[in-house]
Design a protein that fits this description.
Elements lengths: L1 E10 L7 E10 L8 E2 L16 E4 L2 E2 L13 E5 L6 E3 L5 E4 L14 E4 L1
Antiparallel strand pairs: 1-2, 3-5, 4-8, 6-9, 7-8
């Protein structure tokens, strides 16, 4: 956050010499300059005997606000395609991992929709 300090003095032009001085502080607050953008699309092959906890992929997104600005913070979540909760995602890093045993005969393809906010 950037701030500026200034002093304003107002004087009576009537020759009385009356004046008042007031300090003013102006603070410039940041705004969200744009939505995050994914680096993908992502296409991953994984074996049905993948161990629970195995890293499937790291999804990444960039934000014009940068990494150090509060509007640049990114939070990842799986919002659809994981009806049996077989995958999990680290909300801070975007790492997708296997959460439960996979069974190709039950589901041979997953289309996960990941949101970053």
């Amino acid at each position: 956050m950037t701030s500026y300090s200034l002093v304003v003095t107002v004087a009576d032009d009537g020759g009385t010499g009356n004046s008042v001085t007031v300090p003013i502080r102006v603070t410039i607050t940041a705004v969200n300059e744009g939505p995050p953008v994914f680096a993908g699309p992502y296409d991953v092959d994984i074996s049905e005997d993948a161990a629970i906890g195995l890293s499937v992929d790291d999804v990444t997104a960039t934000d014009v606000d940068g990494d150090v600005h509060p509007h640049g913070n990114r939070f990842y979540s799986i919002i659809s395609g994981d009806t049996n909760n077989q995958f999990s995602i680290n909300p801070d890093t975007g790492r997708v991992t296997v959460a439960t045993n996979l069974d190709r005969e039950t589901d041979s393809v997953y289309h996960l929709t990941i949101q970053v906010s």
